[in-house]
Model the fold of this input.
Amino acid sequence: MTDIPLSISDLTVAYHRKPVIWDIAVNIPPGTLVGVVGPNGAGKSTLLKACLDLIPVTSGRVEFFGKAYQEVRHRVAYVPQRESVDWDFPILAIDVVAMGLYRQIGWFLPVRKRHLQTAQAALDRVGIGDLANRQISQLSGGQQQRVFLARALVQQADLYLMDEPFAAVDAATETAIVEILKQMKTDGKTAVVIHHDLQTVRDYFDYVILLNMRVVAAGAVDEVFTNENLQKTYGGRLTLLDQATEAMRRREIKT
Amino acid sequence: MIASNDWLWELDGWIVLAGILCAISASLVGNFLVLRKTSMLGDAISHAVLPGLAAAFLITGSRHSLPMFIGAALVGIFTAAMTQWIRDSGKVDEGASMGVVFTSLFALGLVMIVRAADTVDLDPGCVLYGAIELTPLDTIPVGSLEVPRVIITMGLVTIVNLAFVIAFFKELRLTSFDTFYADTVGFASRRVHYLLMTLVAITAVASFESVGNILVVAMFIVPPAAARLLTDRLSVMILISAVLGTVSAVIGHWSAVALPRLLGYSSTSTAGMIAVISGVVLTLAIAFSPKQGLLPRYVRGLRLELSILRDDVLAFLFRLQERTPQAFASHDHVSASLRANSLLVRFILTRERHRGNLVYGESGYRLSSTGNQSAVNLVRAHRLWEQYLVDQTGMDSNRIHEHAERFEHIANKQIRDDLERETQYPKSDPHGSPIPKESE
Done:
């Protein structure tokens, strides 16, 4: 069982006694691309943060590769939501990417030239190598998202947890991220990705978790990603109209 | 500049040095308060350390530094922890929870001081704005030199803060930028946070005697806030904030002591003046910062306005000569027709004449052959845009002129060619005016 990258059992998280997610139980098979799908407020981000010990958990157990998170931190990389940080922060793109190496560098020691070279290579890989020395506020939304992705890549983890990497990005960035996800799968790595666009779930992922406070369904996309399950997830309100408004909302942000 | 009888280096030198050390030590840690958007926490801690000081004072009965630092550091951490706790469990936002914590602690400290005032010598007024002027009076011999106690304390605090910022630069940057991510890569952001708060508390206590616990907030926040406007690099920002702090301390003391005398007034509070000067420095940074500054923004706006006006003038003359080939236009005619500021039009006409785009004749200006070439493309862009708007958006042809007027300024050759292709190579615009050929 130890090669299961992420195993969650009976996980419940509550804010002010109101449960946000409850009784989550799921095993992520190795080498898969997993989409986490659900309506706004379904607890998708909360699920990732709870797994990573970033917020207090009411009950439940989370194991990474059969061990506690603290023991296998180096095998797990997190890509936070882009909006979670202040992009006016005085820092260059390459310095953000180098943060992925801080653990390897250790406390007190400075970032050295070879670390910056690794960071540069990661930026090249996500296709924005020429923007390495830009201050991050000068990057577009999609480029900022790629900086975050590059930062996770330099960690050389086996499991990647990504919070809405496709939200409000341009088409080129979307393609770049999909390419990298495919490469990860080829390399036998696992990615758990929070995703909003129902239309692309089938194209991007092999495995899907339908979440609405609890796991409505989890499994291979072909078996689980059905209209019936989607209706359960979205409270039966998922009509074409909802899909369309969701798509519109995303377009709006993109422009 | 400095009147010799009002300025004695043996005294004023020490006072200025005390101000500089306060400013540098405070801005070193203050940068991270500003970047973490927890500037208010600096304010809160500097007030809240008061009961810690008073307690240390009541227990030991002396104003010895060490117990005071320990007391203050403990209360400082307590403030940061309480703020966090009230915010998490009291369902109030961070600002409100800080307000609750620091006013309560400050009040408690004040009560303790007043209670003790009968037996000990601690002045509540001094708590507010310090006594930097007394710096040279209380000295400790170091070798053959009598060094003020304040200088030694502040010097040590500055060194500690500098060492902290250098040693933890990477960690501070990571946790200030992205707290959650920092936790996932194994750098406990909470630990760095409390370490920073401890140093804020220690700096507040050390500066307390010199500048008081209200003005120290100005030193934590104002120089870093100004520095942030002047650079996009964190290390440079820290350096600039230290320099601005130093400048404020020097000018501040001079403005408090020497300047009023020169003007015939009596001298005023140095600590107050240092804070005032740093406020002035911030104002200057807001006005002149290269990116967001008001003045540079105004200049950029003016430049844009001029380049648009130039386009308009050339296009106007082109249309005029299109109708009446031999026409000249006077300055008044141009500014009246364009409804533009007469002075700006005068400037453009003169400048374009010097550049060879216009010629000046007996009754005004007309385009030269080079001027004609640039005007052709402008008018071409304008008319293509009009055609495009009618074709593609079905707009009414009497409403398109204003839009085209704006778009024509952002049409390079590529856009003009695309417009022409998309409108199927029209001969004339919706108003019937001919669309001129592209000129090289």
In short: Chain A touches chain B through 33 residues (CB under 8 Å). The first helix of chain A runs from residue 44 to 51. Chain A has ten helices and nine strands.
